[in-house]
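sorry to bug you again but im stuck and you know this stuff better than me. theres a chain ive been looking at and ive put its sequence and its fold in token form underneath. id like you to explain what the token line says about the fold, in plain words if possible. anything you notice is useful, everything is just below.
___
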Amino acid sequence: MLWTCRLAAAILISVSFHGATEGKLSRRQEKLINLTAEDAVERLCKGQVSATEYAEALLAQNQLNECLNNFAALQPHQVLADARAVDELKASGHDTRPLCGLPFAVKDNIDVVGYPTVAGTPALHGMRPTNSSPVVTRLLEAHGVVLGKTHMEELAEGLTTINPVYGPVLNPYNNEFDVGGSSGGTGGVVSARGAPGGFCSDTAGSCRIPGAHTGTVGFRPSLGCYNAAGGIVPQTTSRDTVGVMARTVKDVILFDSIFSDCHFPRPDLVLKGTRLGYPVNYWKGLDTRTVKTFEAALEALVAAGVELVEFDMGLLTAEGAEIEAELLLAYEMPREVSRYLSTHRYNISLMHLVDQIASPYPKALMEQRTSLNLDAWPTPADYYFNIREVIPKLKELHDMFLNAYNVHLTVTPTTHLPAGPIAQVQPWVMYNGKLVDTFDAYGQTVFLGPPLGIPAISIPIGLSTDGLPLGIHFQARPEEDGLLLAFSAAVEKVLPPMPAPPFTPACQGCTPKVKLQAANYSGVGQPGRDDVTSLFTLHFEGQCELKHDIEFAESSSVHTEL
């Protein structure tokens, strides 16, 4: 089957503001966009920079980078109006802490009044909620500013943020590659210095995989700590949580202190003497391009005094496979999506939404989930057996391993391989010389934590041998978010700084305008069977420079258009 769509990108910046001049930022703007969130907040709260000026710098950077396709919707007029409102409030003597006007990106499955919530799927195009998600309300109460809605995989069903309707998000480190998913737009814009942070959502790695693939920090909190009730297009209540992405762990700690309803203690922690679980089964099969970078990161931990405690969690992995996440989604997603459509009073049925799904993989899954052929699907007894028996057993096994080896934290790769070429990652990706299912390749370490409800974080550690970002992944016990964040902040100090994407002003001697004007994508079907093909054609309003033509194997191609 073939899906084709051509449409203008939603980021149309044609308003009057102090934006980029002749395709470049001023020196002051370059400094502003490269501030960490913590540093930006300090300057905003002290009045060293106004919220309006800071927002203008970010909008200018996003104007330069519009061809990365990070945004599903961006309204510069509204961003600047909201920033000016914070400035006026501060000028009148009001306390605008803790964020003092900091702009923050929001994934496009999270409701924001004034913006449509599309979740990357055609049936929701133009649908505008009448209430913001509780976590967005928390952002606004903290005097933050919504900086647009970011692109995502359709209905958050995927790990690449390649969307046949709205196009792929291009990796700022190399435009030929994807950004991970499903929160790729948030990871992309934070990486490209278009936002200091943003909301993601994570059902099975969707904050952490984009973090690893864009050189950012992706944090999934303990289940239930970030309140998005009724204000997010759901997948499964057993796993879903909103999370945050930023460029440093300290920034994630700042955001978590504001957005989390769970105020877990964060201990004073030193790395020396800390026991860190090292499940050897999760370190097998590293892509050859990643080995040196992962080894260097582990060596840095050991040099700082961390004690790696080796054990094999293969039994836990095997038990985890029995959970059948798809079974949970089959029962929970149709119910929760129907509830979302009903409570928002959208004149759309679940079946109408499913009929319009454009991505082959989510469409096949949702058609199966909503099938009336009950003989072809597990029974309610199977579902409740997993909820009442399998998941509790999995949690018990997890505790057993950690208790047996006296550890509270574990370390794994976030993904065993870096981001893949846009033309060759769905539904198969080349992994150590073999075509492997994309979910199997990228989900080896991140899938297990969500049913346990445990906190997890991906921290950037550097680049693969071919220049793509990599992340290391830490997990803690349930409700030990404070411990996880304290440890991660200490780890960040002993790792080398993450190189900026090559076109950002932070990278000396590089042009700030390295991007694709347009990209056609053809997916590769399973070898030996009929190909499943999706065609993406992106057309952007505005001035976009060609980087170069891109050629891949005959079975798939990406090329630029003039």
Remarks:
- The chain has a mean pLDDT of 86.
- The radius of gyration is 22 Å.
- The CA atoms of residues 44 and 100 lie 6 Å apart.
